[in-house]
Amino acid sequence: MSSCIHNIAKKIIVRGIKKENDISSNTEKLLLEACDTLTLAVVSSQPKSIINMNENPGTDADVYSRNVDLGWKKFGTEYDSIWRKLHLREITHQISPNFKVHVLGEDDLFTRYTCVEKITGKVIRNTLIFPMKDTAVYTNSSEVLSDVELGEGQAQPRSYNTDFDMQSDESFSRIFFYGMGATLLAAQDSSDSPRSDLGPFVVEIPLHELAVRAGFRKYGCRIHFSQDQKVTAVYDYAIDKTITPGEEGWDQAKWLAKVNTFFFVTAREHLVWNHLIVSNVATRESIVHLQPNHPLRRLMTIFTYRSTEVNTSAFDSLVSKHSLLHRSSAFTYSSMTKLFDAAYVSSNAFEPFPERNINPPLTKLVDEGKFPFVSEGIEYYQVVEDFVRDWVAKAGEDNIMDPQGMMFYKGMREASLGQKYVIPEYQGIDDLVKVVTQIIFMVTAYHELVGNIVDYTCDINRAGFRVSNSDETTMDIQSLLIAAVISATTSVRMPPLMAEYPNFFGAGGAPAYEREVWNVFVDKLKAQSLKVKEADEKRDVEFKYFDPERFECSVSV
Fold first, then answer.
1. Quick count: other Cβ atoms within 10 Å of Cβ 189?
2. What is the pTM of this model?
3. How large is the average pLDDT for residues 207-224?
4. Residue 496 and residue 552: Cα distance in Å, rounded?
């Protein structure tokens, strides 16, 4: 379509938004100036749909044993009837040279990936229909979000954090000790820091060699922190300069660091590690190799709830060229591909959380209760491990690790080949327990930390996915709106983890031990939730992400 036609289309869409939401004249003007047609299209269509879904969320009572049968055909009516394996359609995505993903074409409890969905995905990425046009328009108010119902408490959820505006140096530092940046800090090796005089903690985000589109600053920074958890400096790779608090350019340096952290964790830890590697592989291998009444598949079902449907749609909206994530960032798609490739190769997503190395200065903080990402993460991991061991003991090791169980483990291991951490060859039941426990940890607690992003997208001055050359201290409206849509769509509530699941565990002829083991697990989750709440009340800085009461049963969205 010509520029003239696109301008007409934009006016029609904005007129529809105005009629539907009664937006202010200022918002109307900003939408026309700041947005391309695709941004306007998703802003027009998504918020109300998401709000409607949140008004009628899925519950634990919606999961029925009788509906779990994907990939197999049952001969008989009894629970322990014979099952025959069926052929399952797989969709293969070659994301990068080292990273290939195989996704099932159907979800166990939801719909098949249809031709209509496939066509829709191609349409939204078609640059003839929806040209990819970057803009750099700004406002000092987040009114535009609330006007189009993308504000906090509208399509986006309400944050359960307080006093986390990321503006002061203290609030900025909180991202790394009590927010999603903790995943990066925990992986640090401060012995490699070129500036030990700036403190014992460092977060390295080396994205500076990746090309960006015209009009945007290059990514890449290194962030230093003192022993008392305060930021001491940001090194900007693009200008080869270290900026410290109070110096000229400090606000720009903090914004650069926030953008790098938010995008990097979203793309790597959340999208690649959590969705495309852990949840996708666990879902596929359990369905392909384990018949529906297999005790291992019964264990995995809740934790893979809706994962195939979500991960399939992620390729349309987040992974592919001209997707929403690509458009909201500053990267060329070649750079996105390199980032995804590096994320795959560097993945330690299957490494058991308690076994990960932590350097001595960080260990000291953990011992003092000042780095709950590790301390409360390990506590929750141990609750899950107890649950998995209890399930295995009740089901019987021989029933768990029969030929189907061995095929599941082999498939999981093969899927980890080429990554930084490779699942070891099977030596005994402890190996399976660690794999399954880590899967559950990743799709519940870890996903809550890296996937609950409303704090970063609810205000124009919080964080963003790119830095424009025309303003290096805030987010442009186009990218803000796309990030808010991503935040909203990934925040649709799914069944909670701490729930009964009355129609699944022990139901439909399933063994009674399922109900017993699950009830014990839920009781331990409640105890851990109370422990986290009590610890949070005593802390100077809140960390509520690892409260099991907030966990959903799977990555879902």
1. 10
2. 0.96
3. 97
4. 4
| Other beta carbons less than 10 A from residue 351's beta carbon | 18
For residue 152, what pLDDT is reported? 94
Pick the closest to residue 221 from 231, 394, 229 (CA basis).
231
Judging by beta carbons within 10 Å of its beta carbon (0-12, 13-18, 19+), is residue 215 exposed, middle or buried?
A: middle
Within this chain, do residues 266 and 238 fall inside the same structural domain, yes or no?
no
Quote the tokens at residue 119: 């066509």
End of a domain among 199, 234, 253? 253
Over the chain, what is the mean pLDDT?
93
Q: Which domain holds residue 195?
A: 169-253
Residues 228 and 282 in one domain: no
User: Which H/E stretch holds residue 16?
Assistant: helix 3-21
**Dihedral of alpha carbons 504, 507, 511, 516, sign:** positive
Residue 1 has pLDDT above 60, yes or no: no
Q: Which two tokens stand for residue 206?
A: 């080396």
What is the percent of the chain where pLDDT is above 70? Answer: 97
Write phi, then psi, for 72 (nearest 5 degrees).
-145, 155
pLDDT tens-place string over residues 425-449: 999 999 999 999 999 999 999 999 9
Cβ–Cβ < 8 Å for 31, 17: yes
